Structures are given as structure tokens and as C-alpha cells.
Amino acid sequence: MGSRRIERVAVLGSGIMGHGIAQISAMAGYRVTMRDVEQQFLDKAMERIRWSLGKMVEKGRISSSEMDEIMGRISVTVDIERAVKDSDLVIEAIPEEMRLKKETFARIDALAPSHAVFASNTSTLPITEMADATKRGDRFIGIHFFNPPQLMQLVEIIPGASTSTSTVDIAMGYVRSLKKEPILCRKDVAGFIVNRIFIPLVHEAAWELKEGKASMREIDAGFKFRLGFPMGIFELADYTGIDVVHKATKEMYSRDRKVVNPCPLVEELYAKGHYGQKSGKGFYEYGQGSYARIELSMQEAERYDPVRLLAVAINNASWLISNDVAGKEDVERALILGMGLKEGIFAIAGRVGYARLVDTLRALRIGSRNEFYEPDSWLLNLVKSSS
Ligand SMILES: NC(=O)c1ccc[n+]([C@@H]2O[C@H](COP(=O)([O-])OP(=O)(O)OC[C@H]3O[C@@H](n4cnc5c(N)ncnc54)[C@H](O)[C@@H]3O)[C@@H](O)[C@H]2O)c1
After folding, report:
1. CATH, range 194-386
2. pTM of this prediction?
3. Which residue from 323, 285, 312 is spatially nearest to 223, judged by alpha carbons?
């Protein structure tokens, strides 16, 4: 089945991600059925979609009749059978709980047409384990959108152990039809591509803070201005949500000890309910209401050299390459699109010097006795070939 044959998309969950996925699918011409457990959630989701499309009309990006057509392509239901019975593609965006996701997939396996492809928008859970709850492992895949789906260009595509190549093609084709950029994460590894870099960075920065290497603002300024990220790493963690970071950490660490060195500061914030922007306090304190940026200065950046942060990011990026999860270009592109980096992370690393990054990792490895810092073989080869 080619991607052109997808006409009907069912979106399960109408929260932060689900309503956005439903909106962009309808904008690309698909007929969409969005399902949630209560009508009030669906009403709120439709309100959000109407608001978002209304903004596009205001900016002249679509006409009001186009807005009406897009809205007309979305229907909502609390009835799971109605949601999936005519679908060609089901995208699951319900809460990040394996038990709930498996139950849901097992249930719809009996209700959806046999040709329908099932996709999960999970950020961290294993695709293969979810696929195993169904009898259609070959037609099961991860389609990982970033928040907000309406604006973020990157979508990671993650095949499970039994996913067929035609399902990969369907997923890639669907994402391209949304005018988004799919990047293939060839293996179902903890954190996929972007979270495998992002989540450990939050912890590494937290270790620097805990060890008194610099102030929070200095670390953030160094990260932002000296590496070319759009904001500080603590600021980004607060924006993402400390609860989300914490949950992702636990999930990733339980699957693979090599992926992150968890710093207790994150757990402490989580335990206190300091979830970041949304709760008014995370690493930083925020006023109530609208989204606030942290004003950081170049002077602060001069007081913190983010070499440890870069070393850890490059090491995890190299791990993805040496384990054949993604090629160098795809890793770089994913970080540019998913984390807003201005240029390729290997270009930045090249300027700092690979040998210096490996020395930094070795010192951390010896100091902490933690294999997380063991320099990756691909990175070591880079040093060899560039010396
Ligand atoms: N929020 C993000 O930044 C982000 C980014 C990428 C991926 N994700 C992933 O997307 C998924 C959804 O996250 P979210 O942030 O949109 O969550 P959310 O809490 O905003 O929305 C989840 C929605 O699913 C509904 N729901 C619960 N059980 C359901 C069921 N059985 N059937 C249908 N709907 C059900 C809830 O009522 C809620 O409206 C998670 O797997 C998450 O890890 C989130």
C-alpha cells in the first residue's frame, strides 16, 4: 500500500500533541477522526484548533473558507470503534504509560481494518513492545512529532523489530505530505535521536551546577551563546516541563544505563512539583501566566566554558552513529530541527577539537567511575583520523 492511499487518519488523544497532529493532518487534506475519553477534552481540542487556524487566517496564510474546509475534515468521538473502524492510519497520542498504550493498541487491533497502519507518538517507550500487543507488528511504527506539531518541522520515524519497509515508506510519505521533515531512527533505542542528546544534557548541566562549577545563568548563557542553541539548557528543560524530563529520564535509564547520568537535582525539582514554566517554578522562577524567556548575557557566557556539555552531546551523537541508528547528517539535521541548533553539532565539535572532548570524557570517566562517560569508538576513530 503506498502513502497516497491513506485517506483517513484516526488520532487517539486530543491533548497537547493529539490536537496538533489532527490539525496538520486535516490541513494536508486527510479526513481525521480524533478520539478522547471525554467529550469536554474534545471540545477543548477543537477550540484550540479553531484558535490556531484563526491565527493563520489573520496572517493571510489560509483563507477563511480554507479554514472551514479544514475544520470540516475533522470529526470527534469518544467511541473508540467509531474512531478507528474506517482508518488507514491510527496515530496514538495518549498519556506516556506503557500499560495504557498496550491496552489501547490491543483493543483497536480488533476494531481497525487489517490494512491500517498503527503509529505511536511516544517520546521514550519501546515501539516493539507496543507492537507486540497487536497482531500487526509489520504495520506498526513510531511517528514521533515534536511540540508543537503545528510549528516543529522534525518528525522522527522509528521502526520496531518487525516493521516492514512498506510501513516505513508509508510513514515517511505521510510525514512529507504534511510538509514536515521525517528523519529515520533506524533502531528502537532509548530516547530515539533527539531525546538521546537532550535529556542527558539537562542532567550534565545539573551536575555542573551541583558541583559548583558555575551559576545556573552562566551555564545557560555558555550553552546558548557558545554552542549556538536558541536558549539555555535549564530554560529549555523548564519549557519542556521538568515532569516530562523526569519521566523521560526514568524510562530511558531503565532501558539503557549508557544513555544518561541522572542528576538528583532533577528528581528533587520533580518531587517538589516544580515542573517549570507551567507550574511557575522549575530551575528558574516565572511569573504567572504568559510564557517568559530568560534574558541571558554574553558576559555571563564568558564565565562558563560548556566543554563538558558538548563532550557528552557528541559522545551520545557518536553512539547513535556507531550503533547504526542514524548517519552523521541525519543526527545533525535532527538536532538543528529538533533543538534549534544553528549549525551541525560536529562542526561545533570540530572547532573545539575532538581530542579535547575525548580528554574531557576520559577525565569524567575516571572521576566518576561511570561508564556513561566512556568515549564512543566512532568518536575515538575521529580523533585518530584527524590527528
Ligand atoms: N507534550 C510533548 O511535548 C510531547 C512531545 C512529543 C511526544 N509526546 C508524547 O505524546 C503523547 C501524548 O502526550 P501529550 O503531551 O499530548 O499528553 P496530554 O496529556 O496533553 O494528552 C493526552 C490525551 O489523551 C487522552 N486519553 C487518555 N486515555 C485515552 C484513551 N484511552 N484514548 C484516547 N485518549 C485518551 C487524555 O484525556 C488527554 O486528553 C505521549 O506519549 C507523549 O510522550 C509529547
Report:
1. 1.10.1040.50
2. 0.96
3. 312
Beta carbons of 330 and 320 less than 8 angstroms apart: no
Element (H, E) at 237: helix 233-240
Mean pLDDT per 10-residue section of the chain, whose length is 387 residues: 74 97 98 98 98 97 98 98 98 96 98 98 96 98 97 97 98 98 97 97 98 98 97 96 96 93 98 94 85 91 98 98 98 97 95 96 95 96 86
Output the CA 38–ligand 1 centroid distance in Å: 13
The Å distance, Cα 11 to ligand 1 centre, comes to 10
> Which residues belong to the active site?
123, 144, 156, 195
Among left, alpha and beta (phi > 0; psi -120 to 50; other), residue 344 is beta
Q: Which residues are CB-contacts of 14 (< 8 A; sequence separation ≥ 6)? A: 22, 34, 35, 36, 41, 42, 44, 45, 76
Q: Topology of domain 3-184, per CATH?
A: Rossmann fold (3.40.50)
For the CA of 240, the nearest atom of ligand 1: 3
What letter would DSSP give residue 92?
E
